[in-house]
């Protein structure tokens, strides 16, 4: 199961707070059982809102064929030059 995103946390938390406040003001409950029921309903509503948000998905990268220039015939000199360049990549410029 993927981890929740920051948007899911924030929207879910905001839903819990505002829906609990709205229900407490709307129902004007004073008993402990009523407050617990409102809190439970607010938590369930916040969970539903957080799960309804789409999870972040990473774009799928499709393998593309190499360009046609990479498939051309290489001469031995080109291969030797490329090998020499690879050997000198990590060296400092004063050591050449």
What does the secondary structure layout of this molecule look like, with pairings?
Elements: H1 6-27, H2 32-52, H3 76-87
Helix pairs in contact: 1-2
Transmembrane segments: 9-27, 33-53
Keywords: Membrane, Transmembrane, Transmembrane helix
Can you characterise this structure?
The protein has helices at residues 6-27, 32-52, 76-87. 57% of the residues lie in helices and 0% in strands. The two termini are 53 Å apart. The longest helix has 22 residues, at 6-27. With 96 residues, the protein is an all-alpha fold.
Total DSSP E strands: 0
Helix content: 55-70%
Mean pLDDT: 81
Number of helices: 3
| Dominant shape | rod-shaped
Largest sheet: none
Distance between the termini: 53 Å
Descriptive labels:
96 residues; mainly alpha; 3 helices; 0% strand; rod-shaped; transmembrane helix; membrane; transmembrane
